[in-house]
Specification:
5-stranded mixed sheet; disordered N terminus
Length: about 210
């Protein structure tokens, strides 16, 4: 998207040139109440763009819908992002703040919340029956338990780094570093690299 012509900074001549192919529908029906195949893909794209330990995408940055099987165009990507032109940033976060943030993400579960996080680079478990704030039972990054004092490099939309959806309680963007790329461009680049994508099913943070 280096060209400055067109409403989204794309060449006017080819606004819907296919980027990649999806082997099946990639759903994003309810990103505020559960992980979705699209949410995982967007998080994977941001982590790939930043080459970070982790990537987080809040549900408030995703539009409900489905990326249909077949060829994928930029306009389809934009339609599933609330703020496709938001920058992607890298924010250093310590393990204690990260665990607190995940608790906030799970606070309303299974009720929908814009604070619900889709993630890449992590795996874990939570007890949906436990009191809010005490639901997370395990959290690993790159196969290692998250340590409260360790600092992790986390890619995320700039609005999340600025504290959207209540995350201002755990971090601010004073130490954020912009990748100088938008969410939509990061997703496009990731898909173009893959050529063919399939939906990943199965939660990374699993309810017990």
């Amino acid at each position: 998207r280096g060209c400055t012509s067109g409403s989204h900074g794309r060449p006017i001549a080819a606004p819907t040139a296919p980027i990649a192919t999806a082997t099946a529908n990639i759903e994003n029906a309810a990103p505020g109440r559960s992980e979705t195949a699209w949410g995982r893909l967007v998080a994977d794209a941001l982590r790939s763009a930043g080459k970070t330990d982790l990537a987080l995408v809040n549900a408030g940055s995703l539009n409900p819908g489905t990326l249909k099987a077949g060829t994928i165009s930029p306009s389809q990507i934009d339609a599933l992002l609330s703020f496709p032109n938001d920058d992607v940033v890298i924010l250093p976060i310590n393990g204690a703040a990260l665990r607190s943030a995940v608790e906030l993400s799970l606070r309303a579960y299974p009720t929908s919340s814009p604070a619900f996080l889709q993630g890449s680079g992590w795996e874990g478990t939570f007890n949906s029956q436990a009191p809010a704030g005490k639901r997370l039972t395990s959290l690993k990054i790159n196969g290692q338990d998250v340590s409260p004092n360790n600092t992790y490099q986390v890619a995320m939309p700039v609005s999340l780094a600025q504290g959207a959806n209540g995350y201002f309680a755990y971090w601010n963007d004073s130490s954020a570093r912009s990748l100088k790329t938008t969410i939509a461009t990061a997703v496009e680049n990731y898909l173009a690299e893959k050529h063919v994508v399939s939906p990943e099913n199965g939660a990374r943070l699993k309810a017990q």
